Each structure stands twice: as structure tokens, then as C-alpha cells.
Amino acid sequence: MSGPRYAMAVDTRTCVGCSACVIACKTENDVPRGYARDWITTETRGTFPSLHMTIRSERCNHCENAPCVTACPTGASYYGPGGTVLVNKAKCTGCKACIASCPYGARFVDPGSGTIDKCTFCVHRRADGGAYTTACQDVCPTGSIVFGDLDDPDSEISRALRTRPSETLLPEAGTEPRHYFLR
Amino acid sequence: MTEFTTTRQNPLIDPTMHIWHAEIPLYLFLGGLVAGVMVIGGLWLLRRPEGPRSRALALLPWAAPVLLSLGMLFLWLDLENRFNAFRFYLAFQAGSPMSWGSWILLAVYPASLGLAWHTTPADLKATVRGRLRDPRWLAAMDRWLASRARGLALASVVLGAALGIYTGVLLGTLAARPLWNSAILGPLFLVSGLSTGAAFMLFSRLDGGERRTLARADLWLIGVELFLIAIWITGLLSGGAAARAAAGTLLGGSYTAAFWTLVVAVGLVTPLVAEWIELRRGEVPGRFAAGLVLVGGLALRWIVVFAGQHAGWPTDVAAF
Question: Does B132 touch chain A (CB under 8 A)?
């Protein structure tokens, strides 16, 4: 594949769940009140007092094999620059097939337009050269969010995924997420 | 033990997805019923092209375009961005059953109208022609349809079956919803649609012979439907954790009572027994069993749509 292949990774060792990413996204993308394009999930395992907690900043996984793109009857859901999964609102009927097809619950209906909304990896910030940072990444106080081009071996995300063990959500769903969690 | 908490509270998504409400099961029910009327109407025309038929049977194909329009109204009402509905017809997405469905619906209209006009009794056709200023085009269309009656009947059967099966395939291809993600759902909805179509026809003033033919067909269809439901649930139970959890919504979970009473007992087993008794005793099948079949057909779609949204990937499965 030519061109960049954008991906994100969240470092679960350093993420403290402060929700700065959530607020930054809402401000950057004018996300409707009561809705969120990204969110914090806390997973607690074990039995007290032997507990282990993982905090994750989650969002659309921008899957390589995105079921929402396949399910969309009008072509409104599509693969955008760098493999981002986007919604062309001019084509969206609000049929919600994409919401039903997403195992991650990453999409919602924008109450204003009746069209589908979700994380865009802040692709509107993309510069001509292809490199950019996302709003959530910029504000993360612990630097836990890594974003970049998987096809560039020197990008921060390529190095992080090479040197650290990582996971994706629901790999068994076969969606090939482009959103990783560093362990 | 694993516990999840999330800050996400998106309306219609959390805590469980509920994006589709009454409009969708009503549309699926009407779509299935229309599919049944078209398939049965087409088969009847194929087997008895010139044979005598009651006035009710001759007029019944009109139910297809009328009820389909009502169903499509429900479908349109479900859209969140209704003014973009025309976008369905500016694209064809081969991987999207909803795209297939929107084009199938477009093809079903002329076929159902053609079948309805072709089988309309001659005196009614003459009345309509008499009211037109220039009836020649209608007479020409009449001749055209009559010369292609077999093709029209085949088109009704094929497009009716496509309509019936797509409503199930639409849900069946959504891998993220384990209760729906089964290849059986297409055939199940098709057979249920044929059964409700036959039941709907039994509500009109058909003659005794026609009633017996339809009731006999319905008896077989109900039997096949029970078999398909058994396979569907067995398939879920033999699947992964998410599929087993989805089956649990019907086997002890929150939709158990509604499913086994309204769909299985009231909608399938009772009419099966009632129609069997009627036919065995040589009686003319009445409307009791047919009414229950319609209740069961709507309940099946209602429960499948609601329970399917309820049963996503369980959070304990979502963990890595």
C-alpha cells in the first residue's frame, strides 16, 4: 500500500485515565453535548486485595477490515487518507447499519444532523507531508498516546510496537484494528 | 473476576445498543408478509394460469404493493437523516445487504403491481378502463402482461423470495451482533414470511379449496420454521462465548418468556396443531390459526431485533 498507514497506540502503563483526551477531542471536533468520540475504560481483574487495574483511552479502532464500511449501503462510510475510517455526512442516511456492525460501539448518531459521528484520528489536521498529531495526543499529560505512520519504520508508533508488547481489542472479531494498547 | 467501567455514555449505544425501535420489526414483518403474498401469488399463477379463482384470491396481490409501501414508510421513519434517503439509489454496495435490499425493493414494486393488475377480475379492469379518458395504454399493458404471464409469475416468486430472504440476511451478516450472526436467519425469515403471507391470505374471503391449499402449505411452512429455529439456537449454543451468551437471552435471559410463549407456543405450535386438526377433520380452515401465525410472525421479528441489539459482545469477552 502506498502512502501513510495511520495507527494509534495507548500506553496502558502510563495512562492515568484523566480524561484530558476526551475533553480535547470534544473541543477540537465540536462533539455534541452528552456524546463522546473517545472515552476511558477501566478494567479491574482479580480478587481483593490481589487486584490489577488497566486504564485505556479508547476510540474508533480504524480497522483495516472495517465492518462499518462493508455494511454501509450508500458508501458514506469509507477508508480515508492513511487508512482512516471516515463518514461522508453528505451521503449518510442515518440508517445505523454501521453502528450495528461495529463490535466496539465506537459510532453514534449526531443528534443535530442525524448522521453518524465517530473518531476521525483528527485527519483534518493532516499536513501536506502526511505527518500530524491528534488533539487527544497533544493534551495527554503522561504522553501515553502515540500516533503515526506504520509504514515509516522510524515513526514513534512503529518503534513502540516493535519494542513493546501490544494488544488490540477483540482480535477475534477479525476487524484488524489499527488502534493498539501497549502493555 | 473482571470488572469494567467506562466513561462512555453515548445515547442509543450505552449501556446496551438500542438503535432500532418498533419501525424495524414492523418493516421486517410487512416485508416478509409481502414476500409471502408475492411468492404464493406467483406460484398460483404458474400452476393455474387460467384456472378459476375466488374474487378475494384474484384481488389479494394488491396487498403486496400497499403493505410494502407501509413497510417502506416505517423504514423511512427509522432513518435519522430522512432527507438523504435518495442516497440509497445513488450507490450499490455489493457487501451491504441493506444496499441489496433497497434495490430489491425497487424491483419488487413493478413486479407486484404487474401481478396485481394481471390477476384483477375482468369486470374491475373494465370499470377502471371506463373511467380513463384514454384507456388504450392500459389495454396495451394488459395485453403485454397477459403475453408474459409466466415471466411475471416467475418474477414474483424470485423477487418475493429475494425480499423475504434479504430481511434475514441483513441481520445475519452483522458479525458484531452474535444473536443475529447466523446464516439461518435468512431462510428463517423467508419461511416465516411465506407462512405469514399464507396466513394473511386466509383472512380474506377465499373459497374452501383455496383455504385448504393455503392451510396445507402453512402447515409445512410452520414445521420448517420450527426446525430452522431449532437449528439457529443449536448453532448459537455450539458457537463461541459471545454466541452462547446471545442464545442465553432466549434461554433464561430477559427475552425467554416472550420468545417461547409468543413466537413458539402462540405463533407456531398452536396454529400447527389447529391447522392439522382442521385439515384432518376435513373442515375448512378458519381464521383462528391464521391470526396466531400473524401474531407469531410479528413477535419473532420484534424479539429477534430487540434481543439481538441487547446481546452484543459481552464485556468479559471484550477484554484482552
Answer: no
Closest CA to B56 of B127, B123, B121, B128: B121
Cβ separation A99–B12 shorter than 8 A: yes
Give the model confidence (pLDDT) of A106-165 as tens digits: 999 999 999 999 999 999 998 777 789 999 999 999 999 999 999 999 999 999 999 999
- For A52, nearest residue in chain B (alpha carbons): B2
Strands, sheet with A179-182, edge to edge from the N-terminal-most edge strand? A145-149, A6-11, A179-182, A166-167
What contacts A45, CB < 8 A, 6 or more positions away? A51, A52, A53, A54, B1, B2
Predicted complex ipTM: 0.92
Do residues A146 and A9 lie in contact, with contact meaning Cβ atoms separated by under 8 Å? Answer: yes
Three-class SS state of B10: coil
CA–CA separation, B25 and A73 (whole Å): 19
**pLDDT tens readout for residues B236-255:** 999 988 899 999 999 999 99
Contact B99, B93 (CB under 8 A): yes
Nearest to B13 among A47, A105, A113 (CB): A105
CB A140 within 8 A of CB A11: no
A112 touches chain B (CB under 8 A): no
| pTM exceeding 0.90 | yes
Which residues 52-111 of A are in CB contact (within 8 Å) with B? 58, 67, 70-76, 90-97, 99-103, 105, 107-109, 111
Tell me the C-alpha distance between B88 and B73, whole Å.
Answer: 15
Residue B96 Cα, gap to closest chain A Cα (Å) = 5
Q: How many CB atoms lie within 10 A of CB A79?
A: 14
